[in-house]
Amino acid sequence: MSTETSQPILALREATTVFGHGPRATVANSRVSVEIPESPPTLINVVGESGSGKTTAARTLLGLQKPTSGRALWRGRDIYTLSDSERTQFRHEVQAVFQDPYGIFNPFYKVNRVFDIVVKRFKLASSKAEKQRLIEESLEAVSLRPPDVLGRYPHQLSGGERQRIMLARAYMLKPKVIVADEAISMLDVAVRAVIMNILLDFKEQLGISTLFITHDLSAAHYLGGNIMVMRQGRVVEKGTVDDVLTNPQNTYTKLLLESIPSPDPDSRWKTSASDLEVLEEQAGVSQV
Amino acid sequence: MTLQEIGASLAGSQGEADTPAKQHLMQIRDLDIHFRSDDGGLARVVDGATLTVGRNEIVGIAGESGSGKTTLVEAILQIVRFPNRETHGQVLFSTRAGKQVDLMQASDREMQRLRLDEISYIPQGSMNSLNPVVRVGDQIVDGMVAHGTNARQAKRRVTELLDRVGLEPKVARLYPHELSGGMKQRVIIAIAISMEPSLIIADEPTTALDVNVQRRIIEMLARLRDEMKVSIVMVSHDMAVHAQLVDRVAIMYAGQIIETGAVRPIVRTPMHPYTFGLMAAIPSIDKPRTRLDGIRGSTPSPRNWPAGCRFHNRCPNAMPICTSVPPLLAPVTPGVRQTVSGEIEVHSGREVACHLYEESTPDDARVGEGAR
Known about the structure:
The complex is a heterodimer of chains A (288) and B (372).
Chain A: E1 8-19, E2 26-37, E3 43-47, H1 54-61, E4 69-74, E5 77-78, H2 84-93, E6 94-97, H3 112-121, H4 128-141, H5 146-149, H6 159-172, E7 177-181, H7 189-206, E8 209-214, H8 217-223, E9 226-231, E10 234-240, H9 241-246, H10 251-259, H11 273-282
Parallel strand pairs in A: 3-8, 3-9, 6-7, 7-8
Antiparallel strand pairs in A: 1-2, 1-4, 4-5, 9-10
Chain B: H1 3-11, E1 24-36, E2 42-54, E3 58-62, H2 69-76, E4 85-94, E5 100-102, H3 108-117, E6 119-122, H4 136-146, H5 151-164, H6 181-192, E7 199-203, H7 211-228, E8 231-235, H8 239-245, E9 248-253, E10 256-262, H9 263-268, H10 273-280, E11 330-331, E12 335-338, E13 344-347, E14 351-352
Helix pairs in contact in B: 4-5, 4-6, 5-6, 6-7
């Protein structure tokens, strides 16, 4: 497989997803295309407001939401027609981290179960000792001390710790891609940096690509790599983070950039309120 | 002028930090809010909070989840009557009639009048609490009528209130589901200002909004402060929101206010190691892309705060004293410090709860000093 350097590990080709039908149909994704290369490992940020179709695109890539038209591909094969063995391989290579670190755990089981299931399902260890070693290594990779979290119930852990457990679980599988859907938006600022650093380390040290979905342009700037701006189900701008954030071409991207509050009180918004109105009008943003 | 000279000239003006009491709209004094559980445990959710809000001033309350921000503002309004709640301390509020009322002692009737009339509250996520089957105009009228406004007069005011928050008169006839998130938040703010209160308490009013809408709401709150001469207490976990809107900010950690003062020096030269860590963890498109540190460890539980300084087990500057002696929030001598970018900045009215800033601590041990 290493010979096929040109083939992306995961891709959407003109994927369109429509919910409902007739005049009341909602077009959640309209001809969305994106490619996540296997090498070099790449960070792809997907930004946009709520309702812009970011999550639908992520769900399509994860094999959870079959597109109405267009294709979702894993190693060139349609994700929705995989054989059982291919599907297992796909599940091994593509991991997800979701927004809500509280809803993802079953409250009746200790967090160890998250790891136990993965080890069993993907036959990652042949002995108890090996399994234990693997779990501890994975926790250390996300800067958690195994005795702090193992044997505990989800409610005993903070949001940041739970999100790191999901990343440790992903680490165990050494996936090719992590799809992180608003993985930091429910966390405190001090913890967000920790999670983003883990994703950067995964990319640099383990060669894992990440599709990072966020509404926060500052986070996208911090992570770097590529960016795709979505609005009303369409991709309105694509490029490297540095290009798009310093020289945005699309009016909507400009509007987003002009709206970010700076943590420095001396750095106020550069555009005046009236210029912003012009920008809003050009971008087709109605009364807000 | 050298740093020392500026410092010396400031020493004389130290008294200015104490504004005369009549300028204060609200003074929170040594407020504790504890919850006792059935097993006898005590959760000290807010501990010894002291904060003043001046007239026509915007005061921010910042801190991570679980730090006690919301519990503190809910206690001001006496709206949580949780079983086994224990409160101590005072919240002195100057009413329109010129009386000073301790909200902790006020009768239910008095509180009911004060709410909306003089103090209005915008709880977190309240834009989703509009009644789905009532037109928004009627929901604005409801509050005014409950507070003694004649129904016809209240109806006439709706257009004016909507205009104040940047909405067209026709919005009054719409139902909540016909409005965008930003419009719903504007309606909530229209209700909050309907009785022309002297204080608005807003809990994360911009958090669930898209960034362009958030900017609009922040700008509107700043405009309302100028137009209506209202004071605002702004609760937000987002330091950028504070930097853009508030005059003074109080940073909460583990139920205590650990640093307070004018927002500009706090975000530019944070003194408490927690504030320092918090500011250092914020990504910004204005900053070069260097690794951010975050703060190690996680928030402790209110049932079992660490002894001494509650931040000591996560603090990169911890000293032996920090593990046993709780530091008190104390004024920092007005003085000058160098900012990260090398500018010289004046500090007054700044309070920090940290052993690093007590007289006996050598200067070079302080936050950021060694690192810079």
